[in-house]
Design a protein that fits this description.
This protein is of the alpha+beta class. The chain folds into 3 domains: 2-117, no CATH class; 137-229, no CATH class; 241-368, Nucleotidyltransferase, domain 5 (2-Layer Sandwich), CATH 3.30.420.10. Helices cover 31% and strands 20% of the residues. It is built from 11 helices and 16 strands. The strands form 4 sheets. It has a 5-stranded antiparallel beta sheet with strand order 7-8-9-10-16. A 5-stranded mixed beta sheet has the order 13-12-11-14-15. A 4-stranded antiparallel beta sheet has the order 2-3-4-5, covered by helices on one side. Strand 12 (263-270) and strand 13 form a beta hairpin. Helix 3 (139-149) runs antiparallel to helix 4, helix 3 (139-149) packs antiparallel against helix 6 and helix 7 crosses helix 8. It is globular, with a radius of gyration of 25 Å.
């Protein structure tokens, strides 16, 4: 469904000079007129549009989510209706079909809108509904990236980055024009919405947007060749999956050779379905692998708390503590036992929020062996066998016909 605000139209620049209509003043005047509507193109126009849209929904008994300001929901005796808005595009879903029809009529009375029917394509995401579940992928978007890189007939590779290769700054010839590199990396970053298997690879090449070298561009082209060979792959959300949150956290200590900072990775599953993940370089140097693991667990814990709140708001409260799997026993002991003062006194207080979550039974901290630590795929480049072994556990599958 595509929604457009009735009064946001035209093409104006930030600096606008308007002449009052003839007849407004009988004699020349220095009076100033107040414009009561936001002109399209001014920086306050998006806020005015969203406030109008928000008030329209609230007047229709919808409530704005406390955990996502773009999400609105309404619970009735027949079920729940959810509305997600992004700029002027919205998705409506739920189990109360009567309320959905009434909502559509209400929105049509306030906005110029076009009903696009069942959800199949949204902001570059392709959606396929099957009896077994929902499949998300970005095949069309990926084809555009391949064309932009000129790799339609290029050779394929079976894993995105070479193993044991460190990507550094200033160790080669700079690209004379980095615009193509920046376009490709930006496009790949958006592609990670449905391709978590390239999250670490894109994180690595994103560090060199300012001054990329030819070696960095070669790494980007390798990622695209890997994607071109697996263009029909995407995320599958099974209808039979239990509504239970499970998390994994890991880190590659001193993973960045330039800054000596570690690369963290975490992922969250709702049953068997992957719903959240991250691959990111830490914002400071950790003095030990235990400290870096502890910081990664704290970051994952913050996401768990947010997801538990959102799920509870949707009617799927997590009654049991969420398991956060980690492979570092020392970090687990620090989180579960506040006695290690000498080893933790230099760690900032905000990282210790994981202790409160542990004590409040929001999370548990089961140990998992490194062999089965799924988040390795978010922290380092892996061999072909190891890479495919781990992404199989992320519920990344091919087109629904093969499910």
């Amino acid at each position: 469904m595509d929604v457009k605000n009735a009064f946001l139209h035209g093409d104006f620049k930030e600096e606008i000079y308007m002449t009052p209509p003839s007849g407004l003043f009988s004699t020349p005047s220095s009076d100033v007129c107040k414009l009561k509507r936001s002109l399209y193109g001014l920086k306050q126009a998006p806020r005015a549009w969203f406030n109008k849209f928000r008030s329209t929904l609230i007047n229709f008994s919808f409530v704005q989510s406390q955990y996502d300001s773009s999400l609105f929901l309404c619970k009735t005796a027949k079920g729940i209706v959810l509305l997600l808005v992004y700029v002027d595009d919205i998705v409506i879903t739920g189990s109360d079909f009567v309320l959905i029809s009434q909502l559509q009529e209400h929105l049509q009375g306030s906005f110029h809108m076009k009903d696009l029917g069942s959800l199949h394509y949204f902001l570059g995401l392709e959606v396929h509904s099957t009896p077994a579940g929902i499949f998300l992928h970005q095949h069309k978007y990926l084809q555009g990236i391949v064309t932009l890189a000129g790799l339609q007939d290029g050779r394929s590779v079976d894993h995105p980055l070479e193993v044991n290769v460190k990507y550094c700054r200033d160790e080669g010839d700079f690209l004379p024009d980095p615009s193509l590199y920046r376009q490709l990396v930006g496009s790949l970053n958006y592609l990670t919405i449905t391709r978590p298997d390239i999250a670490f690879s894109v994180q690595q090449v994103s560090q060199f947007l300012q001054t990329p070298i030819h070696f960095h561009l070669a790494a980007v082209r390798r990622i695209i060749r890997y994607l071109h060979d697996t263009s029909s792959r995407g995320l599958f959300f099974s209808t039979g999956s239990p509504i239970r949150l499970v998390a994994y956290s890991d880190v590659d200590w001193v993973g960045c050779s330039d800054t000596r900072r570690s690369v963290i990775g975490w992922c969250m599953f709702l049953g068997t379905s992957l719903i959240a993940w991250k691959s990111k370089k830490q914002d400071r140097v950790s003095k030990s692998s235990t400290e870096s693991e502890y910081r990664a667990m704290s970051s994952a814990c913050s996401e768990i708390v947010w997801l538990r709140g959102l799920l509870g708001e949707l009617g799927f409260s997590q009654l049991e503590p969420t398991p956060l799997h980690a492979d570092n026993t020392s970090a687990i002991q620090i989180a579960a036992n506040p006695v290690f003062h000498e080893r933790t006194k230099h760690i900032e207080v905000d990282c210790h929020s994981i202790r409160e979550a542990y004590d409040a039974c929001v999370i548990t901290l089961p140990h998992i062996t490194t062999e089965f630590q799924i988040t390795n795929v978010f922290t380092k480049a892996l061999s072909r066998h190891r890479h495919h072994f781990l992404i199989d556990k992320l519920m990344l599958v091919d087109h629904p016909a093969s499910i």
